[in-house]
Amino acid sequence: MTTTFVQFLFYRLDPAWRRLSEDERHCRATELSETIESQEGLTTYAYNTTGLKAGTDLLLWRHGADVAEMQAASSRLHRTSLGEYLDISASYLGLIRPSNYVRRQTSQEQAVLSHERGTYLVVYPFTKTIEWHLLGAQTRQGMMNEHIKVGHEYGHIRQVLVHSFGLDDQEFIVAYEAEDLLEFQSLVMDLRATDGRKHTLSDTPIYTCVHRPLREAIELLA
Question: What's this model's pTM, rounded to 2 decimal places?
Fold first, then answer.
């Protein structure tokens, strides 16, 4: 099985950035974009989060085979002139693994390696209760079947499920791609009514992000 690390890296912009001239901001944004585009062995998608969540302005969703290269790429980013104005506000790391509950995952159930991204991405860290892991396999499968059935009723919404056990504080990183946030909210409300919900220990903070081409996402930083 190919090892694929996935990271959701959130950045907070220093307000001093806004006091630079427009030409300075443009030049520094271009340098950062070129630095990210030149990274080898990593796939990066950019999302602007300014005004949608306090303390975060930019999300870089990345995946690759080498977590050490992810770290080195972050270091190169921080050494750019715009990188001096960016602080990491949150970072979530994990691995892609086969599902324990779905034999053959569709692109709706695991969209991480798709080359086309949705307009909206909603991301949150997720952890189950201890009791969940001590339940029998058939009991857990039954509750997950209900969960999966609800998800299939919203065929336009795609999920990304990343396993973080032993690598980060949460057990999973859950992300959904959607074109309609009202439809996504309806999905969440329906999932809250399933039996498996009582075994959720934590599923916050929640980040709502807007996908943009890399250069546009960086130019929109304000």
Answer: 0.93
